[in-house]
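Hi P.,

Sorry for the delay on this. The queue was packed all week, but I finally got your sequence through. Input first:
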Amino acid sequence: MLRSISAALAILAGSIPCVQANDFIDDSRVSLMLRNFYFDRDFVSGPGQSRAEEWAQGFIFSAESGYTPGPIGFGVDLQANLGIKLDGGPGRTGAGLLPVGPTSGEPADDYSWLGLTAKARISATELKAGTLSPMQPVILSVPMRLFAPSFRGAMLRSQEFERLTVHAGQMNRINLRNSSNMEKMRVSSPFGRFIASAESDRFRFAGVDYRWSDSLVTSWQQARLEDIYRQDYLGAIHHLALPVGQLKSDLRYFNSREDGSARAGKVDNRHLGLMLSWRLGHHTLGLGQMRNSGATALPYIDGTSVHAHSEGALVSEYVNPKERTSQARYDYDFAGLGLSGLTGMLRYIHGDRVELAGFTDDGRESEFGMELAYTLQTGSLKGLKLRARHAHYRSDFLRDANELRINIDYTLNF
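Then the structure:
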């Protein structure tokens, strides 16, 4: 791993003398994030493994160059991840922090990964090719564990027109969050929602964001996981100033169906979600609803997160066939009490009317979650982030569980 990083840095450094302006260097950013992550899911019902528990230390090195001068600017980015096991063993696997040996059942002592990205910029249009971590409604690489999933492909972002942003991309491989290997993509298939073994080596997406005003942004995207599913997305975010406080409305709609030879089976889903959040001072109160219609669940790429309002839930994603979900959430910024950097959250999600093969026709699930996070504001460790999350999950079709996640993040900027 260290040899790979050294070689990549040598290549990056070797290209610097060829640059005839300082932008390539002056606009560069180099950082090392230290992430310590503890995960414990305690199953309190059903047969099988009693818990999934792992503890790991992650190192995330990132180097992003600026652009060379001229009508077309060129640059290169590098990212290297190293994960080290601190605790974990057979009988406690499944937390998603560490890769597990297929025969031994033993989590790896360490694993590493290196990614390079070439980039070019013309005016307000940027093209990247290589290792990517897209953050788009139809392909969401959120770091829910030690590392975020990453993809191999190309992605374009253009802001040539005022208020309009164009996105497009194509991916052919995914590196899962606890893996060192690039592999073909699959659709997320818990409970046998789709054919889990079906693979695809091409994911395409394109779309636009349009800012109508400072208070309203709308989005449209279309995606295709070749021979598995097609998907259209519409979204709108609106901020409204009220006589007391401010109201944020977040609307998300997905329309999904099978594509080509339909390797993963039938896909037929319409997902509609609305979240209303009222903010007053340091308090934010949110109420949300999600509705799934059609014969199947909402499809998304396995190993990524789904862009639904349940995204932050710890145990389930609440996008099962026919599922209807209600959510209530309360956030508080303790700066209101003079404790800057400390935030808290309470959330309750309830889903019902779930229809899954082999389970009840009216499946129910619910999760009560809480979170406390603190960012150090002063001192030599300023910026150190501590985050603790807990969930109490109960279900008719999934094993009941209590889950705890604790992570400590600290970033060194060079």
